[in-house]
Write a structure and sequence with these properties.
Structural class of chain B: alpha+beta
CATH superfamily of the largest domain in chain B: Naphthalene 1,2-dioxygenase Alpha Subunit, Chain A, domain 1
Largest sheet of chain A: 4 strands, antiparallel
CATH architecture of the largest domain in chain B: Alpha-Beta Complex
Distance between the termini of chain B: 21 Å
CATH topology of the largest domain in chain B: Naphthalene 1,2-dioxygenase Alpha Subunit, Chain A, domain 1
Radius of gyration of chain B: 18 Å
CATH class of the largest domain in chain A: Mainly Beta
Shape of chain B: globular
Number of strands of chain B: 16
Oligomer: heterotrimer
Radius of gyration of chain A: 19 Å
Chains: A alpha+beta (209), B alpha+beta (279), C alpha+beta (212)
Number of helices of chain B: 5
Number of domains of chain B: 2
Structural class of chain A: alpha+beta
CATH superfamily of the largest domain in chain A: Rieske [2Fe-2S] iron-sulphur domain
Number of domains of chain A: 2
Number of helices of chain A: 2
Strand content of chain B: 35-45%
Strand order of the largest sheet of chain B: 8-14-13-12-11-10-9
Helix content of chain A: 10-25%
Distance between the termini of chain A: 31 Å
Order of helices and strands of chain A: EEEEEEEEEEEEHEEH
Largest interface: A-C, 32 and 23 residues
Chain lengths: 209, 279, 212
């Protein structure tokens, strides 16, 4: 679970237009947003002006606007383009929020805390069936062996699982089914969802609600 | 123990009007459980593991975990009999006291956080204002602050360009003076007196001391509660929760001059509680 | 003309206020401060409603107390084909979420009142209870999106179910319950914020307008 490895942090469908997705990877909070041209931005979840979360900000299509003082940051560069308190002229010096590397592939959005040396390596097809993500209040190390023993319900195809380490106490299971059967995907999604929720309850050592 | 400066300050712990007389109450100050009792008009006691000094000022009970060397700062306007004076709110906020004070001093957020009340686009420009740190009065002062406000107060029925003075006479207390719509020669006074429960949690007490001959208390309170209620989620989404005193930690602009002076002033006092000291 | 007894910071009052504005039903506000003065416990208010809780409406003599009853009354009276239910399965679905909203008030709401300094509570029990409900809502909304549905009930139009739950969800972070683990819930919040007639309250931010 290193800072230099690619981890999935969102599903592609988690990023509709004009929305800001709140992600977390290895303790680092991230603001993830899709610009109107489709580009996915992964930024530190912290406006560098006064430290307010960018995940409560406004995705205006080409810029992210901070909720506190309305500072605007451009897609791709995260460079500050407008400071409303001083509307005359461009921001005084080069101000840009911290950005993280991003790959959108296989229906998921991948990022890393430090730019990995290699491209993302998976054997996944371009467009698998993406299961609902399951956020678990237990560390990845607890979840890993449970997931390794996962028995696909209904004798269906076994999903490929990724464990996103959100922080030291929690993680997210992201499963995809590479070759889903052509019919009744909803039923398949529900079947795995129920099984994974049971796995979550086990990992958290709490009885099912 | 917190740094000596913080320990020896007077800190607000309750509004008298919200405190039942004669019944011991509990609160927390600087991570220390405190029991206090309001015995009647102008008389209260407080204790942690031992008795603590207490004073009642501006409608609040103040105490200290150390030995305050000076009297509490003065607000002469509080004595003027025609003012509406009360505690508008005492609200828990999950942030440090200095962050709460700095938000109170900031005008740039008015059009975005207090939209339609204290500011509105496109009137976002923060014009040049003056900042002074007075060693003699031991306070930070920002004067000649001006901002266009759609609804400056409950006494106003239209927008106006309002003049502000901001004063920080105490590391965790700030007072603002804004032009009254009722009397152009006088100013409304609003104070934030922040009780540091812990380094990253506070109770913010808001003093209202204003001129208003048309609104009832509940209306004035609701106005202030609305405004502060809008600031609360911003403060709770700010990181780090403690105020960084290193000037390179965040990116201030000219509109932030008073906050730059405030951070320097805290650093000069040797304050380490609720802040991240400069490297 | 409806008289609406409300408090500016109360989630259940916000739910009613949202529907009044979205239905464009005129009303007169009568503010009753809950905290710290507990003005709702005054005799004059008890005379109107013995339970002495907010919100309450007086619709030309018809007095209704409680968010769910008021939402149902207003929706059934003004917009039953959209904001309420027109068949029995839909009735049950709406009612399910009205009940869930009460559970949110008792958990996320209790945590919020505790953190603001107003009311003691078992904070970890409140958080655990809120997590249970929010997880369920998030999963429900994710599967709704899979079926091209945008709202809590499988209807093309939002219902009072959405308005009953929204205030508790959107203010839960004030009580220390993060929304970060609930992506579908966060997308639903954006959709609610874009509804015509939507208005904020302290603690609620507007979202960006939709892509045109």
């Amino acid at each position: 679970m290193s800072a230099h490895a690619w981890h999935p942090i969102a599903a592609a469908r988690d990023l509709p237009p004009r929305h800001v997705f709140h992600a977390k990877l290895l303790g680092q909070e991230l603001a993830v947003w899709r610009a109107d041209d489709g580009y996915v931005n992964v930024w530190e979840n912290r406006c560098l002006h006064r430290g307010v979360r960018l995940s409560i900000g406004l995705n205006e299509g080409q810029e992210l606007k901070c909720q506190y003082h309305g500072w605007r940051y451009a897609s791709r560069t995260a460079g500050c383009t407008y400071i409303p308190a001083h509307p005359e002229g461009a921001p005084a010096r080069r101000i840009a929020n911290r950005i993280f590397p991003v790959i959108e592939r296989h229906g998921l959005v991948w990022s890393a805390l430090e730019t990995p040396p290699d491209d993302l390596q998976t054997s996944l097809p371009p467009d698998p069936l993406v299961l609902r993500e399951i956020a678990i209040d237990a560390p990845a190390a607890i979840v890993e062996p449970l997931l390794a023993a996962y028995d696909p319900p209904g004798h269906g195809p076994r999903p490929i699982f990724f464990i996103q380490p959100t922080d030291s106490e929690s993680c997210v299971i992201r499963g995809v089914i590479p070759e889903p059967p052509p019919t009744d995907t909803l039923a398949l999604l529900r079947l795995h969802d129920a099984a994974l929720c049971a796995l979550r309850d086990l990992a958290e050592q709490r009885p099912a609600a | 123990m917190p740094d000596p400066t913080t320990t020896n300050l007077w800190h607000p712990i309750a509004a008298c009007a919200d405190t039942p007389v004669g019944t011991p109450q509990r609160t927390t100050l600087l991570d220390t459980p405190i029991t206090y009792t309001l015995h009647g008009e102008g008389h209260a006691t407080a204790a942690s593991s031992s008795m603590l000094p207490v004073l009642i000022r501006y409608g609040y009970i103040w105490t200290s975990l150390g030995t305050p060397t000076a009297d509490l700062f003065d607000i002469p306007e509080y004595a003027e009999p025609d003012r509406r004076r009360f505690n508008a709110a005492s609200v828990g906020v999950h942030v440090s006291a200095p962050r709460a004070v700095e938000n109170f001093l900031d005008m740039s957020h008015f059009p975005f956080v207090h939209t339609g009340i204290l500011g509105a686009e496109p009137h976002t420009e923060v014009k040049e204002y003056d900042v002074e740190t007075s060693a003699e009065r031991d306070e930070v002062l920002a004067t000649r602050c001006r901002f266009f406000q759609p609804q400056p107060s409950t006494a106003a029925d239209q927008g106006a360009e309002v003049e502000y003075v901001y004063r920080v006479p105490h590391p965790n207390c700030a007072v603002l003076y804004k032009s009254s719509v009722i009397d152009e020669n006088r100013r409304d006074v609003i104070g934030i007196f922040v009780q540091p429960v812990s380094q990253e949690r506070v109770r913010a007490h808001m003093l209202v001391c204003v001129l208003d001959d048309r609104s009832d208390d509940a209306t004035i309170k609701r106005f202030q509660q609305t405004v502060f209620g809008q600031d609360k989620p911003i403060l709770e989404n700010q990181f780090p929760k403690r105020l960084p005193l290193d000037p390179r930690a965040e990116s201030p602009v000219r509109a932030d001059r008073v906050s730059i002076a405030y951070r320097r002033w805290l650093a000069a006092k040797g304050i380490t509680y609720g802040v991240i000291p400069a490297a | 003309m409806i008289t609406f007894y409300e408090d500016a910071l109360c989630e259940n009052c916000y739910a009613v206020r949202l529907l009044l504005h979205m239905l464009a039903v005129p009303y007169t506000s009568h503010f009753v401060e809950l905290y710290p003065s507990r003005a709702n416990l005054q005799p004059w208010f008890r005379a109107i409603t013995p339970l002495a809780e907010l919100p309450v409406i007086d619709d030309d003599g018809v007095i209704i107390a409680g968010a769910a009853p008021i939402l149902v009354y207003l929706a059934a009276k003004h917009a039953s084909g959209t904001w309420y239910a027109t068949d029995t399965p839909a009735l049950a679905q709406v009612t399910h979420f009205l009940t869930l909203a009460e559970r949110l008030s008792a958990t996320a709401g209790a945590a919020r009142r505790h953190e603001s300094g107003f009311a003691p509570t078992d904070l970890s029990a409140a958080h655990a209870g809120a997590t249970r409900v929010l997880r369920g809502l998030d999963a429900h909304l994710w599967f709704a999106e899979q079926q091209s549905q945008a709202w809590l009930c499988p209807t093309p139009h939002p219902t009072v179910a959405d308005l009953a739950c929204f205030p508790h969800v959107i203010l839960c972070e004030e009580g220390g319950t993060s929304r970060q683990p609930y992506p579908a819930l966060r997308r639903w919040c954006d959709r609610v914020k874009r509804l015509p007639g939507f208005l904020v309250m302290p603690g609620v931010f507007l979202t960006a307008p939709p892509k045109t």
